Amino acid sequence: MQDDRSLSKFSAHHADGHGSCERLVERAAAGDRLAMQILYARHHVRVYRFALRFVNDAAAAEDLTSEVFLEVWKHAGRFEGRSQVSTWLLSIARYKALAALRRRTNDPLDDEIARSIPDDADGPEAILEKQSESAALRQCLTQLSPAHREIIDLVYYHEKSIAEVAEIIGAPRNTVKTRMFHARKRIAALLDARGFDAAA
């Protein structure tokens, strides 16, 4: 019960604002478990969703999310503050997801291979989701190449800037812009084929 009171007091004192997550990482680096718990509470859903889009498997995404925060707990001192904490966390998640995909295929996974991995199978749930435009959009995302889907995910669902996306995926900004252009063009074509006006 004492922990709960401490947690709520600490959370209230460290309300969301610029620098608060950075301070939590500093405290975690010093061994503060409470700071680590708050960091996890703030970011685990975002990390999980990002991992899930990569590996397309809920259990694997849960495992990856745990691995990300274990990595942060062990190596929080490595955070240099040159990017937002969320950007740093998604970079770790991306690295671990790619490693998991490599283990799954037992082949090296470079950008060309990543683009060629099919994202298959409409389940009953996906078929039902196609009833609305937002569901159709989500379905269209699964038909993008992994490289293009990753860019759309980071920009629209995680609200990352082009510069932050470039940092997370380790690619030049112009590459990110090019992938974004092609991804949006592909989504527009897919929505059009389904009878939705992408410009609306």
Task: Write structural notes for this entry.
- By secondary structure, the protein is mostly helical.
- The protein is built from 11 helices and no strands.
- It is elongated and about 55 Å long.
- It starts with a helix and ends in a 7-residue tail after the last helix.
- The N terminus is likely disordered.
In summary, what is this structure?
This protein is mainly alpha-helical and 200 residues long. The protein contains eleven helices and no strands.
What are the main properties of this structure?
single chain; 200 residues; mainly alpha; 0% strand; disordered N terminus
Amount of beta strand: under 5%
Number of helices: 11
Form type: elongated
Q: Give the overall average pLDDT.
A: 76
- N-to-C SSE series? HHHHHHHHHHH
